[in-house]
Amino acid sequence: MVWITQALSSSLGRKVIMSLTGLFLSSFLIVHMAGNLQLFKADGGRAFNEYTYFMTHNPLIITVSYLLYTSILVHALMAFILTRHNRDSRPVQYAYSKPEANSDWSSRNMGILGTIVLLFIIIHMRTFWYEMHFGSVPMAEYDGKQYKDLYAVVKEAFSQWWYVLLYVLCMGALGYHLAHGFQSGFQSLGVRHKKYTPVIELVGRYFFAIIIPLAFAAMPVYVFLQVHGII
Amino acid sequence: MKITLKVWRQKNNNTPGKLVEYQLDNVSEDMSFLEMFDVLNDSLTRKGEEPVAFDHDCREGICGMCSMYINGRAHGPQTGATTCQLHMRSFSDGDTIVVEPWRARAFPVIKDLMVDRAAFDRVIQAGGYVSVNTGSARDANEILIPRTIADEAMDAAACIGCGACVAACKNASAMLFVSAKVSQLAILPQGKAEHVERAERMVAQMDAEGFGACSFTGACSVECPKSISLDHIARLNREYLGAKLTSDNVQ
């Protein structure tokens, strides 16, 4: 087994870990966004609550969710190790440097963007995931069956303007993180081809960097406007 | 042209360096950047001061010796060119130009603008070769190689090992250099036989030298005087992953 630990602790192996966990987290975003689109249904939160019930009771989903928590931790921890190593690789900084002449801002600031996303995940999970699992959530009844009314928690959280603003800003950071991260993840795996790379870049730049964060940002904004009777 | 230079002066690797300002009043725009340094050194010598130490050799863009970080960019503002191919017409009268050495843990400063790039040599020694008795030259076209592959190998082989990729990378990563050296051999039949061990050994040596990891910012390829493509970095990742998964080397 020496070869595996050796491979995974090399600079290339560490990037492979970043890539695999990152791409898995990207795929999760699609599911998370699609599911949460239930928030836009004008049914008082029934579809959303039924969906959260499914997500917290389906054994397959529960198993995958543990993989997800692990991926977040590994991705963040590995990023920390890599950042430190990369900083050590240049002990004396340039007095004058013009990196904007040769590379994108997002590609050079993945650590900062990732830290913002990580802090967001912590806040986000505290507000919803923690309340759902360990907090006291009011109950709702549909067709004689009891459901935890997470929709009520969502409404309460998104009725605060500053909380909505925080979400929107963090989704901006997520967009920039994915603009570089998604396509870069494929490079770390060596997936680069004239036929597929342009498609991967397109998906990264438009779907993951723009559509997904926009859809997520639209949710708190929509709920806020609804709660305050603006729409 | 009047030029103000801020040049990094450092006695040796054990003493801290600093930027020192020099004024040059008679710079011709037809001078190369290195010729401008020759003029500066000539005036310093006449004044009894120590000239600025900098690396240079062929002065025609093929040896890879010149290595200056000029105004925040490796080899200066031009793309696809070395420092010796940079001319003063790229600057304007009255400009202030900051000149620093490559900065990386793996490239310790020897003196002023000279750095020790022996780390690159050790990476090559770890596997950047074909270990067969070559004998006499073989007939052309004895081994058939498709034109596209020959071109790609040639593009990788254009690497002159100057280290601009490391200098430009925010992580001081040597991925573009190592990937070019792996690619030029891995895609040709002569080098293919040893491609598994080569990828393993050269990456291990690259890590041992203290270069950073690749963030795929693409800065290296933009600043590379030979414009070596990022395709090679992806190939090195592929080669290394494949090597680790399939080689007999268990330890």
From TrEMBL, chain A:
<dbReference type="InterPro" id="IPR034804">
    <property type="entry name" value="SQR/QFR_C/D"/>
</dbReference>
<keyword id="KW-0812">Transmembrane</keyword>
<feature type="transmembrane region" description="Helical">
    <location>
        <begin position="60"/>
        <end position="82"/>
    </location>
</feature>
<keyword id="KW-0472">Membrane</keyword>
<dbReference type="GO" id="GO:0016020">
    <property type="term" value="C:membrane"/>
</dbReference>
<dbReference type="InterPro" id="IPR011138">
    <property type="entry name" value="Cytochrome_b-558"/>
</dbReference>
<feature type="transmembrane region" description="Helical">
    <location>
        <begin position="161"/>
        <end position="182"/>
    </location>
</feature>
<keyword id="KW-1133">Transmembrane helix</keyword>
<feature type="transmembrane region" description="Helical">
    <location>
        <begin position="20"/>
        <end position="40"/>
    </location>
</feature>
<feature type="transmembrane region" description="Helical">
    <location>
        <begin position="203"/>
        <end position="225"/>
    </location>
</feature>
<protein>
    <submittedName>
        <fullName>Succinate dehydrogenase / fumarate reductase cytochrome b subunit</fullName>
    </submittedName>
</protein>
<feature type="transmembrane region" description="Helical">
    <location>
        <begin position="110"/>
        <end position="129"/>
    </location>
</feature>
TrEMBL record, chain B:
<dbReference type="GO" id="GO:0051539">
    <property type="term" value="F:4 iron, 4 sulfur cluster binding"/>
</dbReference>
<dbReference type="InterPro" id="IPR025192">
    <property type="entry name" value="Succ_DH/fum_Rdtase_N"/>
</dbReference>
<dbReference type="InterPro" id="IPR004489">
    <property type="entry name" value="Succ_DH/fum_Rdtase_Fe-S"/>
</dbReference>
<keyword id="KW-0408">Iron</keyword>
<keyword id="KW-0560">Oxidoreductase</keyword>
<dbReference type="GO" id="GO:0051537">
    <property type="term" value="F:2 iron, 2 sulfur cluster binding"/>
</dbReference>
<dbReference type="InterPro" id="IPR036010">
    <property type="entry name" value="2Fe-2S_ferredoxin-like_sf"/>
</dbReference>
<dbReference type="InterPro" id="IPR017896">
    <property type="entry name" value="4Fe4S_Fe-S-bd"/>
</dbReference>
<keyword id="KW-0004">4Fe-4S</keyword>
<dbReference type="Pfam" id="PF13183">
    <property type="entry name" value="Fer4_8"/>
</dbReference>
<keyword id="KW-0479">Metal-binding</keyword>
<dbReference type="InterPro" id="IPR012675">
    <property type="entry name" value="Beta-grasp_dom_sf"/>
</dbReference>
<keyword id="KW-0411">Iron-sulfur</keyword>
<dbReference type="GO" id="GO:0016491">
    <property type="term" value="F:oxidoreductase activity"/>
</dbReference>
<dbReference type="InterPro" id="IPR050573">
    <property type="entry name" value="SDH/FRD_Iron-Sulfur"/>
</dbReference>
<dbReference type="GO" id="GO:0046872">
    <property type="term" value="F:metal ion binding"/>
</dbReference>
<protein>
    <submittedName>
        <fullName>Succinate dehydrogenase / fumarate reductase iron-sulfur subunit</fullName>
    </submittedName>
</protein>
<dbReference type="InterPro" id="IPR009051">
    <property type="entry name" value="Helical_ferredxn"/>
</dbReference>
<dbReference type="GO" id="GO:0006099">
    <property type="term" value="P:tricarboxylic acid cycle"/>
</dbReference>
<dbReference type="InterPro" id="IPR006058">
    <property type="entry name" value="2Fe2S_fd_BS"/>
</dbReference>
<comment type="similarity">
    <text>Belongs to the succinate dehydrogenase/fumarate reductase iron-sulfur protein family.</text>
</comment>
<keyword id="KW-0001">2Fe-2S</keyword>
